[in-house]
Automatic annotation (TrEMBL):
Coiled coil: none annotated. The keyword ATP-binding applies. Pfam families: ABC_tran (PF00005). This is ABC-2 type transport system ATP-binding protein.
Length: 253
């Protein structure tokens, strides 16, 4: 693991009985990168992410995240990362301010830190007048943006985002990516899974998963050049067809 790597993975594998969900994947993520983990639904993206977050124990292989061993140092790992799941992760029966305070308290942030940063966050999201509003009453797009802001509120070294733009409209998706750029500008590494191939264009580098295996890893521009494609969707389709020719049954979204 070199000094610039914040994630280092070697032959990481996860099996459920006879089914191999993640099949001996290896890669590194550099500090400050926006790293896309792409693939169709069922390709193994979420399973891999859960292992890297210390939420699921690997069957075999090695993985270090922010310097912590995912097997032995899960508590230290969890204190240094942010995580946003596919399903909305905030408490809908609490207000916006109550959710922020609750999650910041979990990470042991001081009252002064919470007060100052809450004010800045509410201003950034233009939610000052709705701070005491129940989260459950917000539109879906605002819920997603708030959930992301809470995931990075404690200033983690890396944030994991699992299909963060699923189910929201294209305009909200673009606004969400603006928040990702702002977080990355502060030095937070962003690891994002998605099945929207156009979102690959927003990443510094991407890896494409097909049936639990990494089929490609490079910058979006390099991948399009390699596969003589005009879009990342074309790249993915070529890789999926290649996997089928090799006798695999490719999962589709």
């Amino acid at each position: 693991m070199n000094e610039q790597s914040i994630i280092h993975v070697e032959q990481l594998t996860k099996r459920f009985g006879d089914f191999t969900a993640v099949d001996a994947i290896s890669f590194e993520v550099q500090r400050g990168e926006i790293f896309g983990f792409l693939g169709a639904n069922g390709a193994g993206k979420t399973t891999a992410m859960r292992m890297l977050c210390g939420l699921s124990m690997p069957t075999s292989g090695k993985a270090f995240v922010a310097g912590f061993d995912v097997y032995k140092q899960t508590e230290g790992l969890k204190r240094n990362i942010g995580y946003m799941s596919q399903k909305f992760s905030l408490y809908e029966d609490l207000t916006i301010k109550e959710n922020i305070r609750f999650y910041a308290g979990i990470y042991g942030k001081s009252d002064a830190f919470i007060k100052d940063k809450t004010a800045r966050l509410l201003h950034q999201l233009h939610l000052e007048d709705q701070a005491n509003k129940l989260v459950g009453s917000l539109p879906p797009g605002w819920k997603q943006k708030l959930a992301f802001s809470v995931a990075v509120f404690h200033e983690p070294r890396i944030v994991f985002l699992d299909e963060p733009t699923g189910g929201v409209d294209p305009v909200t998706r673009r606004e969400f990516w603006n928040l990702i750029y702002e977080a990355a500008a502060t030095g937070i590494t962003v690891f994002v899974t998605t099945h929207y191939m156009d979102e690959a264009e927003y990443c510094n580098r991407v890896t494409i998963m097909v049936d639990g295996r990494i089929e490609a890893l490079d910058t979006p521009s390099a991948l399009k050049q390699t596969y003589n494609a005009s879009s990342m969707n074309e790249v993915f389709l070529q890789l999926a067809r290649k996997a089928k020719r090799n006798g695999d049954e490719v999962k589709t979204a």
